[in-house]
Write a structure and sequence with these properties.
Blueprint (H helix, E strand, L loop, with lengths): L1 E7 L7 H17 L3 E7 L1 H4 L6 H17 L7 E5 L5 H9 L5 H5 L2 H9 L6 H15 L5 E3 L5 H18 L7 E3 L34 H9 L17 H14 L3 H7 L5 H28 L2 H28 L6
Parallel strand pairs: 1-2, 2-3, 4-5
The chain binds tryptophanyl-5'AMP (TYM).
């Protein structure tokens, strides 16, 4: 079975950056890769690498599960599950710790960034986070891993770990390839186009949440930082804010940036922004309706149980085979 794996942390509400960088791409890839099975999950064990409120975390897990489904992932082609419910993920993490080096983990820019923000002390799990992530991927022998740009370094380490194991023990893991969305691998903050749009940014004006109503969406886009030139033109160096909006718009229209620029030739920023706000709201409206229906129904429990069952069967076998390969245990 050919597989594609990806995960999202249940921290903060989903924003349009995460959506365009991940879930929307998953749905597109399901169409273009009909012979692949998708293991998609809620990375809750990753979330506790920094402090979390347990009540909020529980709520965020359910909400993220509903969003995955509401955004249109094809359930017959997907095993959707909660990472912590399959303990093979934790087991694989521990085993792979012996195949990652301190120096490699010390070089991870996301660790450095996140460690800087910790006031209560830096958790050891934050340091070893990329190993847990490598396990998530290698457990299912993923051929592809669709992610945003910020996960590039983690994917490179996953490949290194897989190659290291294969080199020492003979072919065992599939070495995964990252897949980045063409236009939206890095959706930038609406207020600071030098920074990526982030779940953890406290500035509400920096992002659009998938749950935002139309009036808020339009307001956020209207107040997005652009420039004073006034011409709709793609120039990612000198017009970072506008170019970010153009890429988002093109991704939602499923067309090229060039086509969008052509469409808005001679049109002012206000009209461009109003149209983009309308487009985003129209795109999100059916997702929001499905999301609310799912949150009220029992359907999610069945979907997650089913996903867990299918993923776990594979994951348990892979861990058992890996332990055996390493010479661990006595009986089996
Ligand atoms: P997380 O939860 O931070 O983000 C989920 C996915 O969304 C992408 N993303 C973005 N893409 C474009 N522009 C943005 N502004 C933006 N913000 C977020 C991320 O790149 C990611 O693809 N470590 C992962 C979760 C994870 C995982 C895995 C992913 C755990 N195990 C195994 C793939 C495979 C994370 O924290 O993503």
């Amino acid at each position: 079975m050919k597989t594609i794996v990806s995960g999202i942390q249940p921290t903060g509400e989903l924003n349009i950056g995460t959506y365009l960088g991940s879930i929307k791409n998953f749905v597109a890839l399901q169409k273009s890769h009909p012979d692949h099975h998708f293991f998609l999950f809620i990375a809750d064990t990753h979330a506790i690498t920094v402090p979390q409120d347990p009540t909020k975390l529980r709520a965020a897990i359910k909400s993220l599960a509903a969003m995955y489904v509401a955004c249109g992932i094809h359930l017959d082609q997907t095993s959707l599950f909660v990472q912590s419910e399959i303990t093979a993920h934790q087991e694989m993490d521990v085993l792979l710790q012996s195949f990652a080096y301190m120096g490699e983990l010390e070089r991870m820019t996301q660790f450095k960034d996140k460690a800087q923000k910790q006031v209560e002390g830096i958790r050891a799990s934050l340091f070893t986070y990329p190993v847990l992530m490598a396990g998530d991927i290698l457990l299912y022998d993923a051929e592809f891993v669709p992610v945003g740009d910020d996960q590039k370094q983690h994917l490179e380490l996953t490949r290194t770990i897989a190659e290291r194991v294969n080199h020492q023990y003979g072919e065992f893991f599939t070495v995964p390839k990252p897949l980045f969305p063409e236009l939206t691998a890095r959706v930038m903050s609406l207020q600071n186009p030098d920074q990526k749009m982030s779940k953890s940014d406290p500035n509400v004006k920096s992002k659009i949440l998938l749950s935002d109503p139309e009036n808020i969406i339009k307001k956020r886009i209207r107040s997005a930082v652009t420039d004073s030139e006034g011409t709709v033109r793609y120039d990612p160096e000198n017009k970072k804010g506008l170019s970010n909006l153009l890429r988002m718009y093109a991704a939602l229209e499923e067309t090229s940036v060039d086509n969008m620029v052509e469409r808005y030739k001679g049109v002012n920023y206000q009209t461009f922004k109003d149209d983009l706000g309308t487009k985003i709201a129209a795109h999100l409206a059916p997702i929001q309706a499905r999301y609310h229906a799912l949150m009220q129904s029992q359907e999610l429990t069945d979907i997650l149980d089913d996903g867990k069952k299918r993923a776990e069967a594979l994951a348990i076998k892979k861990v058992q085979r890996f332990k055996k390969k390493l010479g661990l245990g006595f009986k089996r």
